[in-house]
Amino acid sequence: MSKITFINTFGMEIESPKPAFQFVPDWYKQHPSYLGSSKKTPEWNLDGPKTTIKRCMPVFDAISAGYIITLPVEIYVSIQDVEGKKSQLFQWPNDLKIIDFHPIEQALNHPLQGNFAYPKFINPWGIKTPKGYSTLFVQPFHREAVFTILPGIVDTDTYSSPVNFPFVINDPTFEGYIKKGTPIAQVIPFKRESWKMEVGSEKEFKEQHGISQKLHTKFFDKYKSMFWSQKEYK
What angle do CA 5, 190, 194 make, to 5 degrees? Predict the structure, then answer.
């Protein structure tokens, strides 16, 4: 099993990153698995019982992939007028620097740009991965949040200093608290490999057709029971 190391660079005790499966969102936990009262009495369509997103393993794999870094302090977001221009103000209850900014000009045409300078979470954690492994940093998947970080990939086998997380507040009029412990980044290590694309031939078509036919031999958990592989993040 490969190892990822998180290094606390803040010099104080803070909540450490944890596997993402420990942060499964409440909406997902509480969602029914089947349309109908249960697996025994689901609603049906021509393809079989009607299942929900709760039974979709690709969604589960995304939610539980990698590790989650959380916000070490509470933050209050407000909007103020500075020299006749509206700006976002971020406040937190101690001297720990947790927010910095990038000028809006650095990514003026980015689709997430919200007419403010880009705030960024100062990440307390350096990350070290084995040789040949990089790390994808993304907005935590399938979770409600008032902000969205800008995704990025870093070669954490050679660069183990903290990677900060530029973000935007999704609603530019938002004012309120972002709670301590809020997931701010999903950290997914992966092995670097070179790839070459090709378009499949008749052979690949027959292969995928056979997979589709196999799926039609079961009512429940088709992909999970026949094709899915469990992923481990400890």
Answer: 140
Do the Cβ atoms of 18 and 68 come closer than 8 Å? yes
- pLDDT greater than 90 at residue 83: no
State the CB neighbour count (10 A cutoff) for residue 50: 13
227: tokens are: 């094709």
Q: CA-to-CA distance for 68 and 189, rounded, in angstroms?
A: 12
Give the H/E segment covering residue 51.
none
Residues 6 or more apart in contact with residue 52 via CB below 8 angstroms: 31, 32, 33, 34, 35
**201, 146 Cβ separation under 8 angstroms:** no
- Residue 11 forms part of a structural domain: no
Q: Looking at the predicted structure, is the pLDDT value of residue 40 above 80?
A: no
* Residue 42 is assigned to a structural domain of this protein: no
Domain count across the chain: 1
Q: Which tokens sit at 142?
A: 């399938």
Instruction: Specify the pTM.
Output: 0.90
